[in-house]
Amino acid sequence: MSHPSQAANFLKDEKRAHWHDETLWFVREKRDIASKNIPEWEELRKLASGIKDHVLSKLDYYLEELEQKASANGIKVHWAKDAEEHNEIVWSILKEKKCKAIVKSKSILTEECHLNPYLEKRGVEVVDTDLGERIVQFLKQPPSHIVLPAIHLKKGDISEIFHEKLQTEKGNEDPVYLTHAARKHLRDKFMAAKVAITGVNFAIPETGEFVVCTNEGNADMGVHLADVHIACMGIEKIIPRRADLGIFLRLLARSATGQSITNYNSHFRSPAPGKEIHLILVDNGRTKQLKREKFKNSLKCIRCGACMNTCPIYRRSGGYSYGSTVPGPIGSILSPGIDVKKYSTLPFASTLCGSCSDVCPVKINIHEQLYEWRQEITKAQGWSTKGLSMKMANGIFTSPLAYKISGKLLRASLKNLPKSVIYNPLNAWGKNRDLPEVPKESFKEWYLKNRS
Amino acid sequence: MSSKESILSSIRELNQVEKPLPDLPHFESAQDLVGTFQQSLQNNKGSVISALDLTDLVNSGAFPKVFSGSKLIPDLKTFELPERGTDLNDLDLAIIDGQLGVSENAAIWLEDENLGLRAVPFITQHLVIVLEKSKIVGNMHEAYSLIGLHHSGFGVFIAGPSKTADIEQSLVIGAHGAKSLRVVLV
Ligand code: SF4
C-alpha cells in the first residue's frame, strides 16, 4: 500500500491522530529546550557532521581497524553483505550454543533484517526487551517509531494486551502498574536467556569497542546475564576516536527525548571471563547508498528520531503509513535507496518545510534529499521535469498524497507546525493560501542553482 | 570473494577523497560543578545522600541483601560475589564506587574494577554510587579526556535509575534495572 492510503487510514481515528501529533510535538519541544541549554549546540552539530563525513570518506580503513582492534580485544567479528547473511550468522551462533530462547534489545538493524521471523521459523523464541518493543511484539506489530516504538498506542490498548498476555487486572491502565508487570515478566526472560542480542549506537576503531545506549537498562540486563552477546551494527555506525563520543552522547539523547544523556551508556571492549562477544558488521545496501553522491550523507544518521518528531506529515500520518523499517523523513530517503519502486511514494510524503534538516544533530540535508529523490522517481516514471513549474517539481501535483496531506494540514490549525514554517514571511502556509509554495528561501536558491 | 572483501572493495572502488577529521575544541562548562551535578541528578530522578544516610539505610533492615564493593566507604555490610550474575536476582541494594561524574548530565563513569560483576548495577533493585566530589568534571569532553584510552573490558556511564516512558509518554521509574539511584558525594 502506498503512503497516501495508509495515511488516510491513520487519520480516520481523529482523536488518536490528534493525540499522536500533540505528543510528538511535545517531545520535539523538550528537544528544543535541551538543545538551547547548550551554547555550543550548533558547533556540536557541525563537529558531528564533520566527523561522520570524514568516516564515510574512509570507511574501508576504519572498518578494518575496527575489526583488527576488536579482535585483539577478544571480540569475534563477522561480516554480512546483506540481511540474509546477517541472519545466518546469528543462527549459526545460536545453533552452536544450542540456544532456543534469546533476549534482544532495541535494534533497528535486526528489524531491517527481519531477524525475528527468521529465527522464529527455526524454533527460537525471540523476546524483545525494550518495553515499547515488547508491547508491539505482543501485538505482532513492528515499531512505529525508531525511538518510541509504541507511540501509536494508547494505554487502554496496552492494558488490554497485557491482560491477555501477562494476566494483569482487566481495565487497569496505570502506566506504573503495567510497567512493573512487564518488569517482572521480562526478568524471568533475562534470567533464562543464554544469548542476548543488542544493536550498536557507536563503534570506535581506536579502541575496538562499541557503545550501546538505553534508558531502561534492558541491553545490559540481557548481555551481562547471558553467556553470549551478539551485537549487530550497520557499517556506518563508526566514529573514529573515543573522545568523539563526547560530542555524540551530548547530541543523541537531547535530540531524541530532550534528556541530557541516556541513562545507561555501555562501552563493550572485551568479554567478561568465560563469556563471548560477537560483533556483526552489516552492509545490506549501505555501500550502495554510499555510491550515490546525492544521498550518501543519509548514512550519517544516528537514529535519534528528531526528524520524525518534528515532521508535520509523520506526526499526522503515523509511522506505519511509511511501510518501511525506518519511517519519517530519514526513512523516506533511506528506503528508496533499498527499493525505489516499493517506496516510490515516500519522498512525496513531505511538505519540504525543512524542519527535519533544522533539528538533525548530524546536519543531514534531509529535505533537499527528499527533493532529489522526487526528481529521480519522476524521471524513472517517465515524466520530464524540464519545464515543470516549481510546484510540480515540488511534488505537490505529482503525488495525490502530498496534495491531500498538505490540504489536511492547511485546514487544520497551524499551531502545531514548526514556528520556522509558520513565521517565515516567505511561507504561503502562514497566509492561509491553498497550496504551500516555496517553504524557504535557502531552498529556493538551492533549487535555482540545481535545476538545470 | 568473502563478504568482508566485497564490502571493502565496493567502498574502495569509489575512490573517495578523504575529508578532514575535525579537531575537538575545548568547551566551557558550569562553574559550580557540585551544585550543577546535584541538579542534573535530580532531573534524572536520582538523589544525593550523605555517608551517614547511607549507613542508616544499610542498617535500616529495609534491604535484606546488600552488596558493597566500595573502597571509599569501607566496612559496609557485604558478601562474596557469586560467579554468575543470575545468582544476584535477589540483590536488594548494591553500593559501588564511581570513577568520575559529569555535572552537565550527572553521568557517572564505572569500569570493571568498580563493579565486581558486570551485572551488579543493573540487576540490583536499588543502587548507590559513591563519588568523590573532586572527581566531578563539567562536561562529557572533559570526562573522556580524563578516561583516555584506559583499558577496561567494560565501562559504563550511569546517569539515573532505570526508566521508561513507553506507555503514553508517562515517565515510570524502574523499568528493568535499579529502581533508585542514590549518590553519596564524599
Ligand atoms: S536523520 Fe538526523 S534527525 Fe533524523 S533520525 Fe537521523 S540523526 Fe536523527
Secondary-structure element pattern of chain B, one letter each: HHEHEEEEHHEEHEEEE
Helix content of chain A: 40-55%
CATH architecture level-2 label of chain B: 3-Layer(aba) Sandwich
Instruction: Give the name of the CATH superfamily of the largest domain in chain A.
Output: NagB/RpiA/CoA transferase-like
Number of domains of chain B: 1
Would you state the CATH class of the largest domain in chain A?
Alpha Beta
Number of helices of chain A: 22
Mean pLDDT of chain A comes to: 86
Sum up the structure in keywords.
heterodimer; A: 452 residues; alpha/beta; Rossmann fold; 3 domains; six-stranded parallel β-sheet; three-stranded antiparallel β-sheet; B: Rossmann fold; five-stranded parallel β-sheet; 6 helices; 11 strands; 25% helix; binds iron/sulfur cluster
Describe this structure in words.
The complex is a heterodimer of chains A (452) and B (186). Chain A has 452 residues and is α/β, with parallel strands linked by helices. Chain A folds into three domains: 38-284, NagB/RpiA/CoA transferase-like (Rossmann fold); 294-382, no CATH class; 386-450, no CATH class. In chain A, 50% of the residues lie in helices and 10% in strands. Chain A has 22 helices and nine strands. Chain A has helices spanning 3-12, 14-36, 41-57, 59-72, 83-96, 108-112, 115-121, 131-138, 155-166, 175-192, 218-225, 244-256, 286-291, 306-310, 312-317, 328-338, 355-359, 366-380, 390-393, 400-411, 419-422, 441-450; strands at 76-80, 101-104, 125-128, 195-198, 202-204, 209-214, 228-234, 264-268, 276-282. A six-stranded parallel sheet of chain A has the order 1-9-7-4-2-3, sandwiched between helices. In chain A, α2 (14-36) runs antiparallel to α12. Mean pLDDT of chain A is 86; it is low at 384-401 and 410-447. The mean pLDDT of chain B is 96. The longest helix of chain B has 11 residues, at 33-43. Chain B has six helices and eleven strands. Chain B has helices at residues 3-12, 33-43, 51-59, 112-115, 120-123, 140-147; strands at residues 47-49, 66-68, 93-97, 100-102, 108-111, 126-131, 136-137, 154-158, 163-164, 172-173, 180-185. Chain B has one domain: Rossmann fold. A five-stranded parallel sheet of chain B has the order 1-11-6-3-2. Chain B is α/β, with parallel strands linked by helices and 186 residues long. At the A-B interface, α2, α3, α4, α8 and α10 of A face α1, α6, β8 and β9 of B. β8 of chain A pairs antiparallel with β8 (154-158) of chain B. The complex binds iron/sulfur cluster. Iron/sulfur cluster (SF4) binds at residues 255, 301-307, 330, 359-362, 364, 366 of chain A. Iron/sulfur cluster binds at residues 255, 301-307, 330, 359-362, 364, 366 of chain A.
